[in-house]
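Appendix B, record 7
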Amino acid sequence: SDRDWMRRNMEELYRLIEEKIKKAGYPGEIDGREFYDEVSDEADSQENGTYIFMIKKSDSIYYQGCMEIMDEQFDLHYVDIHDSDKVYHVDFD
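Structure tokens (predicted):
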């Protein structure tokens, strides 16, 4: 069914997000679904255009990234994961 296809596609997307972040060298735990949901929430609150955004995870960890927002969708260009004094650059293009 369409719903199963969509669910499988989203699971694959979450896995790819986790893979890209690990490949960038980030040693922390990352949940692809949670990451996607947080970025998606940022996108939902904006008009169409290109934005730099920041998501604070804890006192020492935050995400800073760039996304382009179009009607009903967004394109995540990159995210820098700031963890204390280290930065992990994750390219999504």
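Remarks on this record: The two ends are 30 Å apart (CA to CA). The first strand starts at residue 49 and ends at 56.
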